[in-house]
Specification:
Helix content of chain A: 40-55%
Largest sheet of chain A: 4 strands, mixed
CATH superfamily of chain A: OmpA-like domain
Strand order of the largest sheet of chain A: 1-4-2-3
Strand content of chain B: under 5%
Oligomer: heterodimer
Number of domains of chain A: 1
Radius of gyration of chain B: 20 Å
Shape of chain B: elongated
CATH topology of chain A: 60s Ribosomal Protein L30, Chain: A
Number of strands of chain B: 0
Helix content of chain B: 55-70%
Chain lengths: 199, 138
């Protein structure tokens, strides 16, 4: 009788142990999915596009300086070719008027680093593209978006040791609105990750 | 007499840890830092970006004022990031011999070599096997 009681007690303990262990395994499984999505979205590069960040920066800067397309609502994208490449848009929060990334967005940065370090992504080079909504001065927005894109690149390189050769940063300010129908919408501040070339 | 307690222990260990421990993903480590230290970073390191050496230095300098949760986690988070970086870097070195011996047909592109090694060729070295697991490639 005593033995049977002990066996029942041990079985109850075993059940508790398994109940504790299984959610831990499930939590690890869940955290994998978003990175997997990122990899699938970004490794679908069919063209052999060679986008140069310096050229894109110059295009955006020239347009702002020339003051053409003054009305944001009718402004054509400055680099329409970017839209044809595999890309994804991410919400990354920064301190106001600053390139410093908010701690709420550290997870997203880690996720990008996981994706960039994935073996399937190693043959590709990427552009980090910064955007702003159409509020304030165009020139200021162009500079701020460049500083923010640079900031993300720096974190990936410095903190997560992603090769700097694989990432270029470009700020397009309000010259390539992500929601052209609503130039002041916050969605225009999103960061884009674009697969730009095969290494 | 059946001793269930040792069995339970073995089962618990087997369910929670693989043969070689996988290092924490960058996402989990970064999330731990942001969640445990977000308020402390705002209060003490507002202008410091997510730059590991600088942010770690700032949090260490302000150790006396940061929350207990942050104090307990920030070192772990930075260590985890560093461990995964080291684990990823170690794969090429630890698997160099296995690559030449078992995956000579792979086009020397890392993704192909890894796919070959993940099939676990017979005779693959323990070190290479361990390096792949620790890097989180399984």
């Amino acid at each position: 009788m005593q033995l049977a009681a002990k066996a029942r007690r041990d079985m109850a303990r075993l059940t508790v142990c398994l109940m504790v262990a299984m959610p831990v395994a499930a939590a690890f499984a869940q955290s994998v999915a978003p990175t997997e999505d990122m990899v699938n979205q970004l490794t679908d590069l069919e063209t052999t596009a060679e986008l140069d960040a310096a050229v894109l920066r110059q295009q955006a800067s020239d347009r702002v300086k020339s003051k053409v397309d003054a009305i944001a609502l009718k402004r054509p994208p400055v680099a329409a070719q970017l839209r044809k490449l595999p890309h994804l848009n991410l919400d990354i929060q920064f301190n106001p008027d600053s390139p410093v990334i908010r701690p709420d967005s550290y997870r997203t940065l880690g996720r990008i680093a996981d994706a960039f370090a994935d073996p399937r992504m190693l043959p590709y080079g990427f552009l980090i593209v910064g955007h702003t909504e159409s509020t304030g001065k165009r020139e200021y927005n162009l500079t701020l978006s460049q500083r923010r894109a640079d900031s993300i690149r720096d974190v990936l390189v410095t903190t997560f040791k992603i090769s700097p050769k694989r990432i270029q940063a470009v700020g397009l300010g309000e010259e390539q609105l992500l929601d052209p129908e609503h130039p002041k919408a916050p969605v225009n501040q999103q960061i884009q990750i674009v697969t730009a070339r095969k290494l | 007499m059946i001793q269930l307690r040792p069995i339970a222990l073995v089962l618990l260990i087997a369910t929670t840890s693989p043969a070689f421990a996988e290092t924490m993903s960058f996402e989990s480590a970064a999330a731990m830092l942001g969640e445990s230290c977000g308020k402390d970073i705002d209060a003490n390191c507002f202008g410091v970006n997510f730059d590991a050496p600088r942010l770690k230095e700032c949090l260490t300098r302000n150790q006396d004022t940061v929350s207990p949760q942050c104090r307990a986690d920030y070192g772990k988070a930075f260590d985890a990031i560093q461990k995964r970086v080291a684990a990823r870097a170690a794969v090429a070195k630890m698997c160099e011999r296995d690559q030449k011996k078992y995956c000579a047909d792979a086009q020397n592109v890392f993704v192909d070599v890894l796919a070959c090694l993940l099939k676990g060729p017979r005779g693959m070295t323990l070190n290479c096997n361990k390096a792949i697991s620790e890097a989180g490639y399984r």
